[in-house]
Amino acid sequence: MKLVGSLLWGGILGAAAVLLHSAYVPFGVLLALIGSGVGIWLLGRAWGLRRYKVLAAIAWALVTLRGGSPGVGGELLVQGNFAGNALVIAGLAMLIIGVTTRV
Prior knowledge:
- By secondary structure, the protein is mainly α.
- It has one domain.
- Helices cover 75% and strands 0% of the residues.
- α1 runs antiparallel to α2 (27-47), α2 (27-47) packs parallel to α4 and α3 (50-67) packs antiparallel against α4.
């Protein structure tokens, strides 16, 4: 059950980051990045194993990368501007920090 929960948690964090990153730049980006890193770290604190943090980080990355690819109508949720690039690049760095930080 924790495996499904960690995937769901990562997906929710990723969706929140995608929807929040372009609001009030640069504060939305900072809040999305800090929230993602702390959320992944707290998942490890709550459930105690790194594998759950890794699964949540993978789900976060998949949701974020899906938001950066064109949809059916050609819409993009993560654009190639400062906020979108910062979310993808710094977000992956925050996930690595969140996953590798000891519980």
